[in-house]
Amino acid sequence: MNRVGIALTLAASLCFGQAVASAQQSAAPAATGHGAFPVKVTKTLDSSKLKEGDAVEVETAGSFKLADGTLVPKGSKLTGHVTAAKARSKGDSNSELTVSFDKLNITSGKLLSIKGTVQAVFPPAEEQEPMMAGKASGAAGGGYSAGGSGAGYAAGTVGTVTDDKSGANMQASSKPEAAADPKSVGVQGIHNLELEDGMLSSSGKNVKLGTGVRMIVHVDIF
Questions:
Q1: Fewer CB in a 10 Å sphere around the end CB: N or C, the chain?
Q2: Which letter, b or e, does each residue of 173-190 get, where b requires 16 or more Cβ atoms within 10 Å of its Cβ?
Q3: Global pTM exceeds 0.70
Q4: Measuring CA to CA, how many Å separate 215 from each of 1, 21, 69, 133?
Q5: Mean pLDDT in the chain?
Protein backbone atom coordinates (compact mmCIF):
# COMPACT_ATOMS: atom_id res chain seq x y z
CA MET A 1 0.00 0.00 0.00
CA ASN A 2 1.43 3.40 -0.97
CA ARG A 3 1.67 6.39 1.34
CA VAL A 4 -1.53 7.94 0.06
CA GLY A 5 -3.46 4.73 0.77
CA ILE A 6 -2.02 4.48 4.28
CA ALA A 7 -2.92 8.09 5.05
CA LEU A 8 -6.50 7.61 3.83
CA THR A 9 -6.89 4.45 5.91
CA LEU A 10 -5.62 6.20 9.08
CA ALA A 11 -7.89 9.17 8.47
CA ALA A 12 -10.93 6.91 8.02
CA SER A 13 -10.11 5.02 11.22
CA LEU A 14 -9.74 8.26 13.17
CA CYS A 15 -13.08 9.60 11.93
CA PHE A 16 -14.81 6.32 12.79
CA GLY A 17 -13.39 6.40 16.33
CA GLN A 18 -14.53 9.98 16.86
CA ALA A 19 -18.02 9.09 15.60
CA VAL A 20 -18.28 6.15 18.02
CA ALA A 21 -17.12 8.28 20.96
CA SER A 22 -19.62 11.00 20.06
CA ALA A 23 -22.45 8.45 19.86
CA GLN A 24 -21.52 6.99 23.25
CA GLN A 25 -21.51 10.44 24.84
CA SER A 26 -24.94 11.19 23.34
CA ALA A 27 -26.34 7.91 24.61
CA ALA A 28 -25.17 8.52 28.18
CA PRO A 29 -25.64 12.19 29.15
CA ALA A 30 -23.53 13.35 32.07
CA ALA A 31 -24.94 15.01 35.17
CA THR A 32 -25.05 18.80 34.86
CA GLY A 33 -25.06 19.52 38.57
CA HIS A 34 -25.37 18.03 42.02
CA GLY A 35 -26.13 19.11 45.55
CA ALA A 36 -28.33 18.51 48.57
CA PHE A 37 -31.43 20.29 49.88
CA PRO A 38 -34.16 19.85 52.52
CA VAL A 39 -37.55 18.38 51.68
CA LYS A 40 -40.64 17.58 53.75
CA VAL A 41 -42.79 14.45 53.78
CA THR A 42 -46.35 15.34 52.74
CA LYS A 43 -47.84 11.83 52.82
CA THR A 44 -46.85 9.17 55.35
CA LEU A 45 -44.23 6.69 54.14
CA ASP A 46 -44.80 3.32 55.81
CA SER A 47 -42.69 0.29 54.91
CA SER A 48 -45.53 -2.05 55.94
CA LYS A 49 -47.88 -0.50 53.38
CA LEU A 50 -45.48 0.28 50.54
CA LYS A 51 -43.95 -2.06 47.99
CA GLU A 52 -41.20 -1.84 45.39
CA GLY A 53 -42.20 0.47 42.53
CA ASP A 54 -44.79 2.52 44.46
CA ALA A 55 -44.69 6.23 43.68
CA VAL A 56 -43.61 8.69 46.39
CA GLU A 57 -43.71 12.47 46.54
CA VAL A 58 -42.24 15.05 48.91
CA GLU A 59 -41.90 18.82 48.65
CA THR A 60 -39.04 21.24 49.06
CA ALA A 61 -38.93 22.78 52.54
CA GLY A 62 -37.68 26.19 51.41
CA SER A 63 -36.49 28.20 48.42
CA PHE A 64 -33.02 27.75 46.94
CA LYS A 65 -31.08 28.14 43.69
CA LEU A 66 -29.52 25.44 41.57
CA ALA A 67 -25.97 25.72 40.28
CA ASP A 68 -27.20 27.22 36.99
CA GLY A 69 -29.12 29.93 38.85
CA THR A 70 -32.59 28.34 38.52
CA LEU A 71 -34.78 29.32 41.48
CA VAL A 72 -36.59 26.40 43.10
CA PRO A 73 -39.43 27.84 45.24
CA LYS A 74 -40.60 26.28 48.48
CA GLY A 75 -43.26 23.63 47.84
CA SER A 76 -41.77 22.33 44.57
CA LYS A 77 -42.41 18.60 44.18
CA LEU A 78 -39.77 15.89 44.25
CA THR A 79 -41.11 12.60 42.93
CA GLY A 80 -39.70 9.11 42.87
CA HIS A 81 -40.42 5.51 43.76
CA VAL A 82 -39.85 2.86 46.40
CA THR A 83 -36.90 0.60 45.64
CA ALA A 84 -37.25 -1.57 48.76
CA ALA A 85 -39.84 -1.84 51.56
CA LYS A 86 -40.11 -4.43 54.29
CA ALA A 87 -41.95 -4.69 57.58
CA ARG A 88 -40.17 -6.69 60.28
CA SER A 89 -41.56 -10.20 60.44
CA LYS A 90 -40.59 -13.32 62.36
CA GLY A 91 -36.93 -14.03 61.81
CA ASP A 92 -36.10 -10.48 60.60
CA SER A 93 -33.89 -8.22 62.63
CA ASN A 94 -35.10 -4.96 61.03
CA SER A 95 -37.76 -3.29 58.94
CA GLU A 96 -36.46 -1.39 55.91
CA LEU A 97 -37.40 1.39 53.49
CA THR A 98 -35.45 2.78 50.53
CA VAL A 99 -36.71 5.41 48.10
CA SER A 100 -35.14 6.90 44.99
CA PHE A 101 -36.11 10.27 43.51
CA ASP A 102 -36.04 10.89 39.75
CA LYS A 103 -37.96 14.13 39.02
CA LEU A 104 -37.89 17.67 40.40
CA ASN A 105 -41.06 19.52 39.41
CA ILE A 106 -40.42 23.23 39.96
CA THR A 107 -43.57 25.25 40.64
CA SER A 108 -42.78 27.46 37.62
CA GLY A 109 -43.52 24.44 35.43
CA LYS A 110 -39.95 23.31 34.74
CA LEU A 111 -39.37 19.56 35.12
CA LEU A 112 -35.84 18.28 35.78
CA SER A 113 -34.56 14.72 35.60
CA ILE A 114 -32.53 13.83 38.68
CA LYS A 115 -31.11 10.96 40.64
CA GLY A 116 -31.80 11.55 44.33
CA THR A 117 -31.16 9.58 47.50
CA VAL A 118 -31.92 10.25 51.16
CA GLN A 119 -28.87 11.72 52.89
CA ALA A 120 -30.32 12.68 56.29
CA VAL A 121 -33.60 12.54 58.23
CA PHE A 122 -34.93 14.97 60.85
CA PRO A 123 -38.10 15.15 62.98
CA PRO A 124 -40.76 17.73 62.06
CA ALA A 125 -39.70 21.29 62.82
CA GLU A 126 -41.86 21.33 65.94
CA GLU A 127 -41.17 18.47 68.34
CA GLN A 128 -41.06 17.43 71.96
CA GLU A 129 -38.57 15.16 73.65
CA PRO A 130 -38.82 11.84 71.78
CA MET A 131 -40.67 9.30 73.93
CA MET A 132 -40.42 5.56 74.25
CA ALA A 133 -43.48 3.31 74.09
CA GLY A 134 -45.72 3.63 77.15
CA LYS A 135 -44.02 6.79 78.46
CA ALA A 136 -45.19 10.38 78.33
CA SER A 137 -43.24 12.83 76.20
CA GLY A 138 -41.04 15.48 77.73
CA ALA A 139 -41.21 19.24 77.56
CA ALA A 140 -41.09 21.02 74.23
CA GLY A 141 -37.64 21.92 73.03
CA GLY A 142 -35.82 18.62 73.53
CA GLY A 143 -34.45 16.03 71.18
CA TYR A 144 -33.36 18.05 68.17
CA SER A 145 -31.21 21.03 67.47
CA ALA A 146 -30.79 22.42 63.96
CA GLY A 147 -27.29 21.80 62.70
CA GLY A 148 -27.08 25.01 60.70
CA SER A 149 -28.93 27.07 58.11
CA GLY A 150 -28.90 26.78 54.36
CA ALA A 151 -29.81 29.43 51.81
CA GLY A 152 -33.48 30.31 52.04
CA TYR A 153 -34.10 28.63 55.42
CA ALA A 154 -34.77 30.31 58.74
CA ALA A 155 -34.25 28.58 62.08
CA GLY A 156 -37.43 27.77 63.96
CA THR A 157 -38.33 26.21 67.29
CA VAL A 158 -38.76 22.61 68.35
CA GLY A 159 -42.27 20.81 68.87
CA THR A 160 -43.76 17.11 68.67
CA VAL A 161 -42.26 13.78 67.82
CA THR A 162 -43.63 10.40 68.78
CA ASP A 163 -41.35 7.41 68.52
CA ASP A 164 -42.20 3.91 69.69
CA LYS A 165 -41.46 0.29 68.87
CA SER A 166 -43.80 0.39 65.88
CA GLY A 167 -41.37 2.68 64.07
CA ALA A 168 -40.83 6.40 63.56
CA ASN A 169 -44.22 8.12 63.65
CA MET A 170 -44.05 11.90 63.42
CA GLN A 171 -46.93 14.37 63.28
CA ALA A 172 -47.20 17.49 61.13
CA SER A 173 -46.32 20.93 62.41
CA SER A 174 -47.92 24.24 61.47
CA LYS A 175 -45.14 26.41 62.91
CA PRO A 176 -41.98 27.65 61.13
CA GLU A 177 -39.59 24.89 60.12
CA ALA A 178 -36.19 24.62 61.76
CA ALA A 179 -33.19 24.87 59.50
CA ALA A 180 -31.73 21.60 58.22
CA ASP A 181 -28.09 21.77 57.19
CA PRO A 182 -27.63 20.35 53.64
CA LYS A 183 -24.32 18.89 54.84
CA SER A 184 -26.06 16.77 57.48
CA VAL A 185 -25.93 12.99 57.17
CA GLY A 186 -27.73 10.15 58.95
CA VAL A 187 -30.70 10.29 61.31
CA GLN A 188 -30.90 13.27 63.66
CA GLY A 189 -33.19 13.38 66.73
CA ILE A 190 -35.24 10.25 66.01
CA HIS A 191 -34.82 7.14 68.14
CA ASN A 192 -34.82 3.62 66.69
CA LEU A 193 -34.15 4.71 63.11
CA GLU A 194 -30.94 4.36 61.11
CA LEU A 195 -29.82 5.43 57.64
CA GLU A 196 -27.06 3.83 55.62
CA ASP A 197 -26.44 4.25 51.87
CA GLY A 198 -29.95 5.62 51.39
CA MET A 199 -31.65 2.74 53.23
CA LEU A 200 -33.72 3.50 56.34
CA SER A 201 -33.99 0.70 58.88
CA SER A 202 -35.58 0.21 62.29
CA SER A 203 -35.74 -2.57 64.85
CA GLY A 204 -39.45 -1.74 65.15
CA LYS A 205 -42.26 -3.40 63.19
CA ASN A 206 -41.99 -0.88 60.38
CA VAL A 207 -40.22 2.25 59.16
CA LYS A 208 -42.84 4.99 59.27
CA LEU A 209 -42.12 8.61 58.39
CA GLY A 210 -45.17 10.75 59.13
CA THR A 211 -46.27 14.01 57.58
CA GLY A 212 -43.85 16.82 58.38
CA VAL A 213 -40.72 14.68 58.70
CA ARG A 214 -37.83 16.41 56.96
CA MET A 215 -35.09 14.89 54.88
CA ILE A 216 -31.95 16.08 53.18
CA VAL A 217 -31.91 14.63 49.67
CA HIS A 218 -28.69 14.43 47.66
CA VAL A 219 -29.32 14.82 43.93
CA ASP A 220 -27.49 14.64 40.63
CA ILE A 221 -29.27 16.73 37.99
CA PHE A 222 -29.24 15.61 34.35
A1: N
A2: beeebbbbbbebeebbbb
A3: no
A4: 67, 39, 23, 24
A5: 73
